[in-house]
Amino acid sequence: MLEIRQAAPSDWPAIWPIFQSVVADGATYAYDPDTTSDEALALWMSPAASTFVATHGGAVVGSYFLKPNQPGLGSHVANAAFMVSPAWSGHGAGRAMGEHALRTARARGYEAMQFNFVVSSNERAVSLWKSLGFATIGVIPKAYRHSRLGLVDAYIMHRFLNDILARDEAETV
Amino acid sequence: MLEIRQAAPSDWPAIWPIFQSVVADGATYAYDPDTTSDEALALWMSPAASTFVATHGGAVVGSYFLKPNQPGLGSHVANAAFMVSPAWSGHGAGRAMGEHALRTARARGYEAMQFNFVVSSNERAVSLWKSLGFATIGVIPKAYRHSRLGLVDAYIMHRFLNDILARDEAETV
């Protein structure tokens, strides 16, 4: 059974190998494949973000963060990023975290969620976000240097949250 | 005669009132109108960015920064942001800085430039970027809380740089 909870600083040693393996693949995130643990920690658990982990039997199998996509006058639109351990890919952890993020964002008063850089060849992610109600609102041509495919487009995806049931922050998943 | 040069840390006291007046208006940038000088300095002259000033008779009349829009595998697309002193609005400083930024980005090896958040009601900016070859590649609905108009859309604008003449970095404008 998957559980999703707020991450503590002590979770980083379990998140880091996931970050590292996802980024090393050079197929989904722009982060430099040589990003160090300290740099990744600053990105993934920044003070501006709320970071969560998905666990199974106590082991961290995925993580996501939620933060405003813009400061100040644009802070009502959320941004989020998700990583699943390659060993757990295809077992629903991404979808569970996505739903959790939408409900958490709604509970925190965000009005929409936006992804700025979904790699177009990442079919699993594109199809997941579409199934969760996101629309592609922009295509950035040749924005990503894919490790195997060369230059590929990135999608900007967006959805409003008014139809989402706010998560009670005390509830566990 | 307008000159554009790399900004030095000692330029900040001249850039800050421009930043402050532009942001206080709540019509063009997402930055919180209450952003402090230290916060603004960290945003505008961050280590990741190259910051420039436009001067007239030695006085700073505008500023822009240039930086990668994404890290690592997306770092071939530049991002830039521009501010002109309200007193100098409409005198060509924005256009001069825009052209300077395009030529500088090209010289530094960027392949494209992307603006993530052009407020749709900011007609002067939208029309300037279109005239400099940018296309609107996405519309973020209701993304900006405009101080007078309420929620307005933001545009994502983009152009490739292959047709731009690289600026000789020794050259002055």
Assembly level: homodimer
| CATH C-level label of chain A | Alpha Beta
State the end-to-end distance of chain A. Answer: 9 Å
Characterize the largest beta sheet of chain A: strand count, sense, and whether it forms a barrel: 7 strands, mixed
Describe the structure.
2 copies of one chain form a homodimer. Chain A is of the alpha+beta class and 173 residues long. Chain A has one domain (2-172): Aminopeptidase. The first copy, chain A, contains 4 helices and 7 strands; from the N terminus they run E-H-H-E-E-E-H-E-H-E-E. The termini of chain A are close together. The mean pLDDT of chain A is 96. The A-B interface holds A 23, 26, 29-33, 35, 70-77, 111-112, 114, 116-117, 137-147, 154, 156, 158, 160 and B 23, 26, 29-33, 35, 70-77, 111-112, 114, 116-117, 137-147, 154, 156, 158, 160. Chains A, B: InterPro entries: Acyl_CoA_acyltransferase, GNAT_dom, Mito_N-acetyltransferase. Chains A, B: Pfam families: Acetyltransf_1 (PF00583).
